[in-house]
Amino acid sequence: MQFRITGLTLAAIGGAFPAAAGAQTLDVTLTLPRINVAEYHKPYVAVWLEKAGGPTTTLTVWYDVNKRNDAGKKWLSDVRMWWRASGRTLTLPADGVSGATRAPGTHKISFVGGRGKVPALGAGAYTLVVEAAREGGGREVVRVPVTIGANGAGAGKAAGKGELGAVAVAAHR
To answer: What is the pTM of this model?
Structure first.
């Protein structure tokens, strides 16, 4: 599944690329494993980007956006690390950030930077963080270090052990 995220604002987590340099894309691929339990609930998932000494930028949050009276927001604090880092200050639903939970499988999300949608990433060390929490299940955080070079390229991958499977990130122009 691939879709474009829109509506994020530029954050100062690195130097912005000049407009002539072309838009940078950050591709994130994450796997939600099928967990064999009697009553499976799709996990709430938050994906964010950190830069040492800089602010945290939420890229996407998957939760039950269709619950009556916004009741799905009630459980977002269970995605604890994200909630503490930036979730409690984010007004949800947030255009281009909020989305419905996803079924087990591999999901690819592309974030286009430098055009007001996601931060334009300057050269440096970043950490992509993916956190999943599931009702009646566990909670897991996967941290993926990625170094963006002067040419705007970089990649990293890691894997979870329960609620998350493989997570990969690739930056390119």
So the answer is: 0.82
Task: Report DSSP letters for 115-146, one per residue.
Answer: SSSSPPPPSEEEEEEEEEE-TTS-EEEEEEEE
Tell me the pLDDT tens digit for each residue of 6-15: 333 223 233 3
- In this predicted model, what pLDDT tens digit does every residue of 104-161 receive, in sequence order? 999 999 988 754 456 677 888 999 999 999 887 789 999 999 998 888 899 999 999 9
Give the total residue count for the chain: 173
What DSSP assignment string belongs to 26-84? EEEEEEE-----SS--PPEEEEEEEETTS--EEEEEE--TTSGGGGGGGGGGGSHHHHH
CA 120 vs CA 10, 85, 93, 155, 171: distances in Å: 7, 20, 23, 16, 11
Q: Can you read off the two tokens belonging to residue 54?
A: 């800089």
